Structure formats: C-alpha cells, structure tokens
Amino acid sequence: MAFESLSDRFGSIFKKLRGQSRLTEKNMDDMLKEIRMALLEADVNFKVVKSFVADVKEKALGQDVYAKVNPSQMVVKIVHDEIEELLGAEQTEISYQAHPTVIMLVGLQGTGKTTTAGKLAYLQKNKLNKKVMLAALDVYRPAAIAQLETLAKQNDVGFFSMGMEDPVKIAIEAKKKATAEGYDVLILDTAGRLQIDEGLMEELKKINHEVHPNEVLLLVDAAAGQDAVNVANAFNQDLRLSGIIMSKLDGDARGGSALSIKYLTGLPIKFAGVGEKMGDLEIFYPSRMADRILGMGDVVTLVEKAKEAIDEKEAEREAKKMLDGEFTLEDMLRQMKQVQRIGSLGKIASMIPGMPKLTDEQKATAEREMKVFESVINSMTPYERKHPDILRFSHKNRIAKGSGLTNADINRVLRRYEQSKQLMKQMKQYQKSGKVPPGMGGLGGFGR
Fold it and tell me: Are residues 247 and 208 in the same domain?
C-alpha cells in the first residue's frame, strides 16, 4: 500500500517523541530532521518537504508546544493538519448541479483511463445513486470502444458511441442524448497519447470548448512519482483541470506524488484507485488519508465499506445466532465471505486504529486459512455443515478427498469453529459487564 513505509517512519518518530517528558528545541529539531528524511525517502518533492517542515515548526512555536507537559499529542495534531493541507484539506467531491454533470476524463495512453472510466461509472451509480452514461471518444485505440461498451454493460449504465467519427462531434451528440434522456452524469472517455503532443491537446481543447464539462479530471499513476506532477502541469496549462484521479494507491508506490501534486499544481485529488475491481475507486478524503498515513486508521471508510458489503438486517440475525452459540459452519462461511467483500484482511486491519500491522507472511497465512476453510465446508453435505458433530473418520476422508486437503486440515477447521462458538458464548456472558473476553484480538485466530 502506498504510504506504508512513510506511515511506519512516522510511527517510529512519534514513539520516540512520546518517550520525552518535555519538548525542547533540540528534540524538536531532531524530530523535524527525521520527518524531513522520511518525506524525501517517500519521494515527496523537495520544495514541498521544505515548506512542510517550516510550517510544522512555526505552528509548534506559535502554539507554545514546548511549554506543554505532554507535547507529543499536540505535535501529532499539527503534523496531521499539515498533511491534510498538503492533500487538499477540503473535501474533494464533485458538485452535481448541472443535468447532466459532464466529467471529461483525460490522461496519457497506458494509464488505465478506460478502465477508470468504468470504475467511475460504478462509483457514481452504486455509491452515489446517479444515472450514468459512458461515452467513447477514444477513436484511435482499436479496442477502446469495445472495452468501454463491455464496462458499461457490466455496470448496467448507459453507453454512447458513434464509432470512428470525430471525437468532438461524438462529445456534442453524447451530451445531447444524456440531456434528453435525463442522465445525471455523463463521463467522456477521451483518447490519450504515449506522450503529450500538440495534436492531442488541440483535440481535447476543442472538446472542452464545445461541451463545457463541469469537471476535467486527469488520471495519473501514483507509481509515476514526480513525473505525475509534470504531466498534471502540462495538461492543466491547456485544459484548466478541476482535479486528479490517482490510480494504484494500493500498490507499493511511495506516495510522494500524492503528497506533492496539490502543492505544486493547485489541483486536488478527487478520486483514488485502490485496486483492480470495479468497486476499487474511492472518493478521496484528505483527512481520512492523513489519518491512515499517521497510523490512526480510517474507521469512517471501513464502516462505509461494511455497509456496502453487508446487509444490515442479515448481519443482526447472524450476530444473534453467533452470540447464542447457534451458528453453523455454513453461517461462519457466509460471514467470512461478507468480510472478504469489504477488502483484504491487510486493508481492513490498516483501517482499524491501534491494530498491529500485519506482516506479509501473516496476511498470506490468513488468506490461505480462509481458502482452506471455504474448501472444507464446500466439500461437506448440507447436513454435515449444520451438524459437524456427526463427522467421523470416514466422513473426514471423503471431505479431504473432495477438497484436495488432509484430515489434519479438516480437524483444524473444526477446531476453529468450536473455538469461535466458545468465544461467542463468552461474549454473551461478558456483555453485561462491558468487558472483553481474553483472546478476542487478532482476526479470530486467522493469520496466527
């Protein structure tokens, strides 16, 4: 995940600071030096780092942090606010005042623009309840039109194409159709080039002039580093961009471009790509990202994802069954699949404040255990899933053959199930006292 290394560095820096009884000019300077190095190593632009460190120091002095008995919390807040400021500070949602709201998506070829158009349509339709149309303006890349049409069908949104016609004409007609048919949002998937050239910019300027889009969003790759800033400045000069979509923020990019781009271009990040699935494009909230970078989790986003993935009434029924110790292996598998719809265990853990960071080995072990659990249960009969106590050696042999696993795997799954049932019984006993039973931490035993 982008920012993971930076988050670790900040955690280490603030841990040292918490160990200080008072803040002095020396340990403040030492801390700022470490912050400077951490940001530079994360590929944040030098000018941005210099300004950031100066602002943190100025605000620490202005709020008389040195005089505080416990200064670490105040310093963390100052750093948090400055990171939020770098990322854009204000919420960066789109204003849906026009009908339709026209979003023109631009960028270099090879950045995943057409796929991102599909993801943006998914987000608008499924998370913001908008009636969406996708329009194919990339008439130069042979598969672009077909790809966009497939994404439109997959997401059950409108689609407009005029084949290999002039892109400016296509944009004009797409807007007319979207207006006539009452669409809330029209997304224009424009052509890209391997590099910025005069022909590309002239075409985009003509589309911009004729259609007057409400938003002109540039797609950039988080892994592009400082090149992303250069591309943004070049596009912005001719098109007056309204914002950025930053892809691959789930990858191993250091995140420097995300922390640099607003300061250096004035353009806010409006959406962030965090995976390959259609649902893996998120509205970008600077405050939430600042929380994640400083290891404070992101409970709001986690709750939103849970609401999208889990039916509330069903969750209540399942919770009652679990607390009563009446849930079956089938119930347990269904709950695991609901959790998987929210995201990977590593992603979920990163959003929970105070949750220890999972190592790659722990993540892999947890995912492997969940696959084993699913394979074992799928190889059982419906009656066996509801009554696992009937399982004998012969049953386990059959299940092992059906799942391609061993009897030891079967026994391990059954032990996990029994442990979970016991834990839920304990939970019910502890409900009144408000205490948490021993052993409640750590993903229910997965990944250990």
Answer: yes
One-letter amino acid at 367 equals: E
pLDDT reported for residue 309 = 58
| Residue length of the chain | 448
| Residue 181 one-letter amino acid | E
Number of domains in the chain: 3
- Does residue 343 lie within any of the structural domains? yes
Q: Supply the pLDDT for residue 235.
A: 92
- In sequence order, which ranges of 93-143 are alpha helices (DSSP H)? 113-122
Among 35-49, 76-90, 202-216, 263-277, the range scoring the smallest mean pLDDT is 76-90
Q: Determine, yes or no, domain membership for 298.
A: no
Does residue 96 lie in a domain region? no
Which strand ranges, in their side-by-side order, compose the sheet holding 185-189? 158-160, 132-136, 185-189, 101-106, 215-221, 243-247, 269-273, 281-283
Which of 447, 244, 223 is CA-nearest to residue 348?
447
Closest Cα to residue 370, out of 279, 448, 278? 448
C-alpha–C-alpha distance, residues 92 and 288, integer Å:
12
| Same domain for 36 and 107 | no
Same-domain status, 170 and 261: yes
Residue 147: C-alpha distances to residues 103, 110, 132, 444 (Å): 19, 14, 17, 41
Q: Are residues 199 and 245 in the same domain?
A: yes
Question: 327 and 422 share a domain?
Answer: yes
Q: Which pLDDT tens digit goes with each residue over 221-248?
A: 888 878 888 899 999 998 989 999 999 8
- Whose CA is closest to 264, among 290, 240, 231? 231
Task: Name the DSSP class of 64.
Answer: T
> What mean pLDDT comes out for the span 16-38?
81
pLDDT tens per residue across span 378-411:
899 989 888 888 999 999 999 999 989 899 989 9
Could you tell me the CATH number of the domain that includes residue 335?
Answer: 1.10.260.30
Kind plus residue range of the DSSP H or E element containing 232: helix 227-239
